[in-house]
Design brief:
Helices cover 49% and strands 17% of the residues. With 805 residues, it is of the alpha+beta class. β1 and β2 form a beta hairpin. α2 packs across α11 and α11 packs antiparallel against α12. The chain starts with a helix and ends with a helix.
Length: 805
C-alpha cells in the first residue's frame, strides 16, 4: 500500500497537499468555533447564568438592552423567586498612579455575592469578604488576568500590593483566571459599597446608566416561567413608581448568548466556507484517485486475474486513501497550529473569548474524525470503480490502457462541476462582503475624520468635585492645546460619534404634547462652542453655539437634521422650544429639566457606520458639565506630532489624568470595521483556496484527457487540422465544465447568501453584478486552466504522437 504511493510521488504529493490545506483550514476554524461558541464558559454551571435588562418601547423603536437602575435591581433581587442569586456591576473609573504615568483601570463596582454567584475561584489571592462589601469597608481591588499581565508583568507577588489611585490607596487582594471576563468592559473589580463615584446615583431609580445585572437561575427554572415572573415584576414596579418605571419592561438572556451573539453569524458563515474548501479538496483528490486508478488498470486486472477479490482490491485502494488522509492530518494539524496563532493575532477586539481559542485535544480529536471520514469522501467511489476492472479490455490496452470509458469521464467531470459550484458560492459570498465593506468605508460619518485627533479624558472626581473646577480644567486644556504648533481647531464633546458610547435623554416637545412614557428621546450630546468647527460638522440652519451660549444658565439647544425633520416635518425648527433632562452621572442635578430654544440645526452623524443617523440634541457644556469628555483636535498636517503634544499638554496641567488613549479618528473608524475586515479576509482566503483547487482540478482533468487522446491529436494534426482549432476544441471542454458548475452554483449561492444577513451593508444579497462578475472570473480561470495543457499537447510533433501509441 505505502510502496504503491512511493512509486507515484507526484500523485501522493498533490493529493496530500490539497487535503492538508482543507484539513488545516477546517481544524483551525474549528478551534475558533469551539473556543467561542461550543466550549462552556469558565463559570461553573454557566448555563444557569443570565443577564437581566430593562426594556423600553416596542416595535422598531424598542430598546431591548436598557441598563437598569440600582433600585430596580434591588427590587428584582427581592421579588425574583426563579433565581438563586443576582448581582449588579456598575462601571467605574479607577486612575492608578504608576512610575510610567497615571493609567485608567476601568473597574466593575459589584454588589455583595457577585463572586460566589459566579462560582469561579481566583487564580491568586481571594475575592471580597463580607466586611469589605459593606459601606466603610477597606478599599480593595481584584484584578482581571489581562490587567495583571499588562500593568504588573504577571508578578506573582501582586497580592497585598497597595496601589495609589485617585480615590486613595487601594489594596490588591486577588487576580482572576484568564477566561474570567464578565463584564467584558472592566479591567478590575471593587465593592460597590466602597465605590466613591457610585454613591450619588445608587438612590436614583431613574438613573439607568453603566449598570449590568447578572443572575443565576434556580434549579428547575424554565424560560417561560422566568419570563412570566419578570413581566409580573415589571408591572408591579410600573404601578408603584409610575414616574420612573412606566413603560419599563424586564427581560433575561443567557450569558452565553450575550457573550457570543453578535459574532455567531460570522462564525457560521466561515464554518460553511471552510467545509466547502474541505469538500473541494476531497473532490480534487477523488479526481486524482480516479485518474490514477485508470492508469493502474493493467495492474489491477493482473491482480484480479491472479485471484484478488473485488473487496481486497477496494481495501487496497481505500488503504491508500487512509494513508493519504492520515499524512494530510499530521500536516494539516501543523498548518492549523500556525493558523490558530495567526487568527488570534489578527482577531478583532470584538471577538469574544479569544483566550479560549486553542489547538487542544478537542481539536485534535476533531481532526482525527476528519482523517477517518475523508477517505470515504474521496476514496470510496474511485475504489469501487477500480475494484471492477474489465480484464479483457485492460489486458488489450497494455500498460497504457488507462481508459475506462465514458462513465469514468462523466464521473471526473461531475467532480469538477461540484468544485466549480462550491467555488462560486464562496466567491459570491466574498464578493458581497467586499462590496459591503467598500460601502461602509464610503459612508459619510457626518463630519470630516481626516486629520482629526482625539483623546478621552477622565478627571478625578475627588480633585474636580464641582462644575466650576471641571469647567476651569477643560478651559485651560483647550487653550493649551490650541497653542500647539500644527493645531488648527480644538473642541470638546461628551461622547464622540462612532466611539460606541452615548447616553439617551427623554425629549419633550411643548407644541406636540404626548402622554407620560411616550416622550421622544435622543442622544444627549454636550459640546463646547468650537466643537462643530473642529470636526467640520455642517450647520444647516440657524447658527452654532457661541461663547455667549457657554454659561450655566444658557437656554440654547441644537438638534440634528433627522431629529428636526421627525419632530417638525418641513417646518423651520429654529426658535422652537424643547425640554431635555440632565444626564451627568453622579451629579445631584441628574434628570433636572432643561428647557431651551433651538438655535440651529446641524448635519446628521452616526452612532455606528452601519446605523442610520441617530437623533441628537446638543447642549452647551456649562449647562451640563461632563466629567469624562473627548477632546478633538484638527491638525494642519501630520497627526503624529499632535498626538504626542496632546499628551504632554494634558500632563502639564494635571499629571494624574490618564492620557494613553490619544489616537486619530480615522483609527477609531478602522477599529470599528475590524470585525468585518476579519471575516472578509478569512472568507476571501477560503474562496481563493477554493478557486485554486478548482482550477487545478480542471487542469488535471483536461491534461489527463489530452494524454489519453494523444493518438487522436496526432491523427488530426497529420490530416491538417489547424493548431488553433485543436486548442479551441479542448478549451471548450474546460469552459463547458465551468458553465455547468456555474449553472449548479448560482442557485446554491442564492440560497447560501441568506446566511450573510446582518454581515452585509448597502448591498442586495442577490446583487446581479457580483454574481455575473464571479461567473466570468470562473469561466476565465477555467479557460486558462484548460488552455495550458492543451497548448502543450498541441505542440507535440504528430509523428512522435503516432509513434508513441
Amino acid at each position: 500500500m505505502l510502496r504503491s504511493l512511493v512509486r507515484a510521488p507526484l500523485f501522493a504529493t498533490v493529493a496530500i497537499g490539497a487535503l492538508s490545506l482543507g484539513i488545516g483550514a477546517t481544524s483551525a476554524l474549528f478551534s475558533v468555533i469551539d473556543g467561542v461558541l461550543l466550549r462552556p464558559l469558565i463559570y461553573a454551571e454557566s448555563d444557569q447564568l443570565v443577564s437581566l435588562w430593562s426594556t423600553q418601547g416596542s416595535g422598531a423603536t424598542a430598546n431591548e438592552h436598557l441598563t437598569p437602575s440600582y433600585l430596580d435591581f434591588v427590587d428584582w433581587r427581592a421579588q425574583g423567586t426563579s433565581f438563586q442569586g443576582m448581582a449588579l456591576a456598575r462601571g467605574e473609573g479607577l486612575n492608578v498612579r504608576r512610575p510610567e504615568g497615571t493609567e485608567n483601570v476601568s473597574a466593575a463596582a459589584v454588589t455583595g455575592g457577585f463572586f460566589p454567584m459566579m462560582r469561579t475561584a481566583p487564580l491568586l489571592g481571594r475575592t471580597f469578604s463580607a466586611e469589605e462589601e459593606r459601606a466603610g469597608g477597606a478599599p480593595v481591588v481584584v484584578l482581571k488576568h489581562a490587567t495583571w499581565q499588562r500593568l504588573f508583568g504577571g508578578d506573582p507577588r501582586i497580592v497585598g500590593r497597595v496601589l495609589s489611585t485617585d480615590v486613595g490607596p487601594v489594596t490588591v487582594i486577588g487576580v482572576m483566571p484568564r477566561a474570567f471576563d464578565y463584564p467584558a468592559w472592566s479591567a478590575s473589580y471593587i465593592p460597590i459599597a466602597t465605590a466613591v463615584h457610585a454613591r450619588a446615583v445608587l438612590g436614583k431609580r431613574d438613573f439607568r446608566v453603566d449598570n449590568r445585572v447578572i443572575g443565576r437561575l434556580a434549579p428547575g427554572a424554565t424560560a417561560g416561567g422566568v419570563a412570566s415572573e419578570l413581566a409580573a415584576i415589571a408591572r408591579r414596579l410600573a404601578k408603584e413608581y409610575p414616574s420612573s418605571d412606566s413603560g419599563i419592561g424586564l427581560r433575561a438572556t443567557s450569558l452565553r448568548e450575550e457573550t457570543v451573539g453578535d459574532i455567531r453569524p460570522a462564525l457560521i458563515v466561515l464554518a460553511g466556507a471552510v467545509a466547502a474548501v474541505l469538500l473541494i479538496a476531497c473532490a480534487n483528490v477523488a479526481n486524482l484517485t480516479l485518474v490514477r486508478g485508470s492508469t493502474r488498470a493493467r495492474e489491477l486486472a493482473v491482480r484480479a486475474a491472479l485471484g484478488a477479490s473485488r473487496v481486497r482490491i477496494a481495501r487496497l485502494l481505500l488503504g491508500e486513501s487512509v494513508a493519504i488522509a492520515l499524512a494530510s492530518g499530521v500536516i494539516g494539524l501543523l498548518l492549523a497550529w500556525w493558523g490558530v496563532r495567526l487568527l488570534k493575532l489578527a482577531a478583532p477586539p470584538q471577538l469574544p473569548r479569544v483566550a479560549d481559542i486553542a489547538l487542544d485535544l478537542r481539536v485534535v480529536g476533531f481532526t482525527l474524525v476528519i482523517c477517518l471520514t475523508s477517505p470515504v469522501l474521496f476514496g470510496l467511489i474511485p475504489a469501487l470503480r477500480a475494484a471492477r476492472p474489465d480484464l479483457a479490455d485492460a489486458m488489450k490496452q497494455g500498460s497504457r490502457g488507462a481508459g475506462r470509458g465514458a462513465r469514468d469521464a462523466r464521473l471526473r467531470a461531475a467532480f469538477i462541476v461540484a468544485q466549480v459550484a462550491l467555488s462560486l458560492v464562496l466567491l459570491v459570498a466574498s464578493g458581497l462582503l467586499l462590496k459591503s465593506f467598500a460601502r461602509l468605508r464610503e459612508v459619510n460619518p457626518g463630519y470630516d475624520p481626516n486629520g482629526l485627533v482625539t483623546l478621552r479624558l477622565g478627571p478625578s472626581e475627588g480633585k474636580y468635585d464641582s462644575p466650576e473646577k471641571l469647567l476651569s480644567f477643560y478651559t485651560r486644556l483647550t487653550e493649551r492645546v490650541a497653542a500647539i504648533p500644527g493645531v488648527r481647531d480644538v473642541g470638546l464633546i461628551n461622547h464622540l460619534p462612532l466611539s460606541g458610547s452615548g447616553v439617551v435623554t427623554p425629549v419633550i416637545v411643548p407644541d406636540h404634547p404626548v402622554p407620560q412614557g411616550k416622550e421622544e428621546s435622543a442622544l444627549f450630546r454636550v459640546v463646547d462652542e468650537k466643537y462643530f468647527a473642529a470636526v467640520r460638522q455642517p450647520v444647516l440652519r440657524g447658527r452654532a453655539f457661541t461663547a455667549a451660549d457657554m454659561a450655566p444658565g444658557s437656554t440654547a439647544l441644537i438638534v440634528n437634521a433627522s431629529f428636526a425633520k421627525r419632530l417638525w416635518k418641513n417646518e423651520n425648527p429654529v426658535g422652537r422650544r424643547l425640554v431635555v433632562f440632565k444626564q451627568m452621572g453622579g451629579r445631584a442635578d441628574f434628570n433636572q429639566r432643561v428647557e431651551g430654544e433651538v438655535v440651529g440645526v446641524v448635519g446628521d452623524v452616526r452612532f455606528t457606520l452601519a446605523d442610520d443617523a441617530s437623533d441628537d440634541v446638543y447642549v452647551p457644556q456649562p449647562v451640563n458639565p461632563w466629567r469624562s469628555a473627548f477632546i478633538v483636535v484638527r491638525a494642519k498636517g501630520d497627526t503624529a506630532p499632535v498626538v504626542r503634544a496632546l499628551r504632554r499638554a494634558v500632563m502639564s496641567i494635571d499629571a494624574d489624568i490618564p492620557v494613553a488613549g490619544a489616537t486619530t479618528v480615522d483609527g477609531i473608524i478602522s477599529d470599528k470595521l475590524a470585525d468585518r475586515r476579519f471575516s472578509l479576509t478569512l472568507l476571501a482566503t477560503f474562496a481563493a483556496v477554493a478557486l485554486a483547487l478548482a482550477s487545478i482540478g480542471i487542469y488535471g482533468v483536461i491534461a489527463y484527457g489530452l494524454t489519453q487522446r494523444r493518438h487522436e491529436i496526432g491523427v488530426r494534426a497529420a490530416l491538417g487540422a489547424p493548431r488553433s482549432s485543436l486548442l479551441a476544441l479542448f478549451v471548450r471542454q474546460g469552459v463547458l465544465l465551468a458553465l455547468l458548475g456555474v449553472a449548479v452554483g448560482v442557485p446554491l449561492a442564492a440560497l447560501s447568501t441568506r446566511l450573510l444577513g446582518s454581515m452585509v451593508f448597502g448591498v442586495a444579497l442577490l446583487d446581479p453584478a457580483t454574481f455575473v462578475t464571479v461567473a466570468l472570473i470562473l469561466l476565465v480561470v477555467a479557460a486558462l486552466a484548460a488552455y495550458l495543457p492543451a497548448r502543450r499537447m498541441t505542440r507535440v510533433d504528430p509523428v512522435e504522437a503516432l509513434r508513441a501509441d
